[in-house]
Specification:
The structure is a single chain. 28% of the residues lie in helices and 38% in strands. With 126 residues, it is α+β, with helices and mostly antiparallel strands. It has a five-stranded mixed β-sheet.
Amino acid sequence: MKRRSFGRFGEWAALLWLLIRGYRLRHRNWRGPSGELDLVMSRRGEIVFVEVKARSGSGFGGALGAVNHRKQAALARTASAYLSRFTLWDRPCRFDVIAVERNGRGPGFRVTHQANAFQPDLGRRM
């Protein structure tokens, strides 16, 4: 599977993973002035911004390690725009990361969900 198609597969796998666990999809690939939010979900009244990382292996920190401080800041700016656009500042929210990684050279893969992966300062209590 090519890199781009594995990335798309990773987003679908993450979405299915969350839907099975009771999350509801609000938006997919929502574009704001500072970037894109892969998945915006809701669950029990909470807005969940999900960054999906698909990787062929766990080397170099793996998929979870790819969400560094610069990426977190960009996600926070985009999430702020989202909350403003849909007037959701009164709702609790969090930032999750889902890693979809291949299991060796075989066809299998592993999904790792890191809930509340980081907490940026959005100027309000999350």
